[in-house]
Design brief:
Elements lengths: L8 H15 L24 H14 L10 H13 L6 E9 L2 E9 L4 E9 L13 H11 L1 E6 L9 H17 E2 L2 E2 L4 E7 L1 H16 L6 E5 L11 H4 L8 H4 L7 H12 L21 E6 L5 H13 L4 E6 L14 H16 L6
Helix pairs in contact: 1-9, 4-11, 5-6
Amino acid sequence: MLFAIPAIGLPVIGFFLYTHKVLGGENLSKYDRDEAPTFEVPENPEGIDRLNAYLNEAFGMHGQSATASTGWSAKRERFDAAGLARDHDCEFRKDSFEANGVTIDGAWTLVEGADPDRRILYLHGGAMTVGSDISHRPLTYNIAKRTGCAVFAANYRLMPENSRQATIDDSRAAYAWILENGPDGAAPAQAVGVAGDSAGGNLTLMVSHWTRKAGLKRPDAIVALSPNTDSTISSPSMKENLHTDLMLTPLLKDVLKAPRTLLLWGLRKAYGFNPSNPVISPIFDDLSDLPPTLLQASSSEMLFDDSVRYAAKANLQGSDVKFQSWNNLPHVWQIFDDYLKEAHDALDEIGVFFRENGLDGK
């Protein structure tokens, strides 16, 4: 016997189907994996208590919710202050270029003897709202030191003053620019890589995918540190690690309280894209025929399963995507090389990966 559906129920059903199938995208749970960490870390690694105290002060006491429309200037200043507090044995050379009517600036990180024709574009993290070539100097320096390449950190336009599309446009433009421009001026690159962390890892993977369609030289290597690959926020670790991720919890705890239907529509409004659009959620893209790619993430952070799922899908589709996992470490621990030995261990792996794929300027 068939049951009649009230006429008013059809629009409601249609609304929920659209929300969860179009905005939410395919069910990614088939890419979940439960594997032992690639690198085992003791429960309390040396330096972690001092680092956690810093993270509580920087992100807990001064935590900024992703839903906030103001207050980003102060957080940006704190991020840059952390970068300026360090001394690095290299040159940070400012540079800029014009693209799509916009001036995009940034800085080259140049260690002694750096090869100007082997270049790595660095796309900083910070939830698309904070971060700069200054705040991420510890990462650009360590990558430059381990590869001997010229590393350019681009200051893409930040949200919420600018659109999500602006972050995409600027990152793509920066990649196209370093193909033909180095620290000494116009000159074609012999080899080029892209790296980024967190939100910058999202942009890094987006650039990697985009080059397949743009008719540009594809990157020789891609490195994404704790990347956001799924902007629908569906990964299990987003909630499971809410209490172990001292950096992202203040940013996302209010967002995750929303019912999923409201969350997806809120994300649609904030991004100007369906959350499952592959341009902002690389995991929903075709992951075949990718450049050699390295992902690193900690099983204690909220974005852990974003990397797990991306690597699993990419490997199933035949791409050379390598995933390295650690445990008991914070989000983007690689930037805390003055606190954790494990940061240096991860950075060493990044250096090896880049050098094995043509980014060896030494």
